[in-house]
Amino acid sequence: MSIHKEISFETEICQHLAAHGWLYAEGDAMNYERARAPFPADVLAWVQATQPKAWESLTRNHGAQAGETLDVLRHGIEFTCANGNPFR
What we know:
Layout lengths: L5 H14 L20 H11 L1 H11 L7 H6 L3 E2 L5 E2 L1
Helix pairs in contact: 2-3
């Protein structure tokens, strides 16, 4: 039986990062949401802090569902320009 466990390595990394300013709390992994973003609360906080005008526009257009638009961050949007060429 191996004495090495991945959880021990993971715990040590998380403790080190937390001691150096990384936001980490026990149980954070339960908030991971693959469909929208690794940690939706972190992404939303980042967008709100770094792009307040964009966030204001999102909330104005989408209301309480503004956070559901995270899929755009991952996949982008596509639309057709006036000249008929796609823009991504």
